[in-house]
């Protein structure tokens, strides 16, 4: 089954994402910040990473940079969940190795469509 | 697939309130001279999460408001803007405003957005952004064409970000008929190839009349900045003339859509308008749920487990009972009693919350008030983990606020006066909570001016509270401030008003089964001390019998019980008899008169007197018999019947009879003839 890592410090966003993904038949691993995300990523081999940008301890951009350094995550799609639709965060994310982004707020359907886009 | 977002609302509200608490305490501790970046970051994150969540879950009023707040915070965070106390004030007001908005949304009540609008304007003044300037550009009409020519030069690094050209082509192929030509001219010599690089460029032809430029842009959305992408329409000459007309039509349609959206945006506001606006200020939603420590629940489950074992043991004994098993039966019943007692204590624990829930709002209050009063005051909070029953906690909030305001306003002196008195400029008010016996004690201490003994005395004499030449101890003088209508403030301030309320504070606390007292020394400071029962649901009671009625006295209010020596009783004409107990004269109240029932005996010497104390006043209550002491479960009279003066509640005794629990303060008031025993009309 396709496994997705969802990293967000907001419990309600995590719940919403997890529920949406599980309803669509994906397996979901959750984490509440970059540090936890990194350790979850190492424990589970995930096929896709969804990550919030702004989080305590380690933000999504730093986590992406770390993930790209891991052999298992060299080519894994990593999508940033961002409210900052401004170019700077997107560029920063891209430079760190992010595949793309989903701009918050998004609806469950939009999330699934975007995921289908990267998972094919 | 449609997913019901409302299932996530509760979690969203909870985390938003937590976020607001984080913002508030962060803002409170923010030193504007020397800004702590991590603090600003956590404040920003909290605002950011609330914005993200509220936008996702469709709470646009919150999302829009948080947006401006976040923008300003972001500028502070990225140090393009400094922060000053006025801004902190504005942020704090926004926290209040967001709380109000969220409480309203949570309760599904109409929300008053006037305050949010007002604050937004202030933020926008800071940001210098014209409100509503952001116009959304609607999709450009696609020129009528046969399809598109796309040149795609992804650059060598595209694979490193997890973007795959093949996936993009698959997406394009879903839009129309796709032809792909790969250009390998940039492929280096075999030895120079790095596996992770992409050396190809592509020439794509996508045929399809309905394919729009936006659909193509969306496919390349994430890579458009790094890659070279040229998209050109393949135009059908004959159709191009018609294109202009089509574009115009689409533009008109767009305008219509925009107008419809504008109407939709106004509609909810109009619907809200006739409803009463949510009461401004201190409206605090009382959540029907509490968070309970897992450990407490585990203890409960454990106890229930033991209860089940005991029950099955008793069941076995009962199934084939013979008299030689009486010993075992008694053992089992003892176990049962113990289990029930522990279970009872554990269940009560579930209702216990740390008093920090109440204390948390005080730092903010002290900050705001000290600014308003032009005083310098530090608040020290101790014992905030002390646990207290949720109901007691909810009811003690207001009296605490009142006492604290009082300490800030009347207690702590102005900075210049403090310096004159040889004290540090900054006053200290401390809040302390701790357990003592079966009670929780909350102390509010200030190092201010203390209670002015002479002023209080003069005022009390003037108001006729005490006679002109009654000698009083310091303690008794200080206690006068709890008398109705007492104020010593020279100037009435809008912070704590006319001193109205200390009597109300005492009344409220007494109603909770607690008491309040004050210790003070002029020039040194005052300490208000509140003692409260840990819970309101259970009471340690003394059962007493008068005639055929059994009443319950709260054990805490009983000083002593005695049989009367008539030599100690003096009769006063037109007033109640007095009992001389050591150095005090105590009025004797025959309960049979108060309640109009027939006692065993109306002769004092054959009755018992229970001396009880309330608010520092002692009275002797005449009863026929003292019965057992036991814990009783309090049933509210107000909920089940209506409030009755002199009675605080009722309980059901072991034999199934109902017994009234006496409110000693009320009995004292009754006996003083303040109000005859009558049923007070229930407040509508």
Fold and architecture overview:
The complex is a heterodimer of chains A (120) and B (684). Helices cover 45% and strands 20% of the residues of chain A. By secondary structure, chain A is an alpha/beta fold. In chain A, helix 2 runs parallel beside helix 3. The longest helix of chain A has 13 residues, at 11-23. The mean pLDDT of chain A is 89. By secondary structure, chain B is α+β, with helices and mostly antiparallel strands. Helix content of chain B is 42%, strand content 21%. Chain B contains 20 helices and 22 strands. The longest helix of chain B has 36 residues, at 237-272. The radius of gyration of chain B is 37 Å and the shape is elongated. The two termini of chain B are 49 Å apart. The interface between A and B is large, with 40 and 37 residues.
Q: How would the blueprint of this fold be written?
A:
The complex is a heterodimer of chains A (120) and B (684).
Chain A (H helix, E strand, L loop, with lengths): L2 E5 L3 H13 L3 E5 L2 H10 L4 E5 L7 H9 L9 E5 L4 H10 L3 E4 L4 H12 L1
Parallel strand pairs in A: 1-2, 1-3, 3-4, 4-5
Helix pairs in contact in A: 1-5, 2-3, 3-4
Chain B lengths: L8 H20 L8 H20 L3 H18 L7 H22 L7 H14 L19 E7 L11 H11 L1 E7 L17 E7 L5 H7 L8 E7 L2 H36 L21 H26 L6 H25 L1 E3 L1 H4 L2 H12 L3 E6 L4 E3 H22 L3 H6 L6 E10 L2 E8 L6 H10 L11 H6 L22 H10 L3 E7 L3 E9 L4 E9 L2 E6 L3 E6 L5 E2 L7 E4 L2 E7 H5 L12 E7 L2 E7 L1 E9 L3 H4 L6 E6 L5 E5 L1 H8 L13
Parallel strand pairs in B: 6-8, 13-22, 17-19
Antiparallel strand pairs in B: 1-3, 1-4, 2-3, 5-7, 8-9, 9-11, 10-11, 12-13, 12-20, 14-18, 15-16, 16-17, 18-19, 21-22
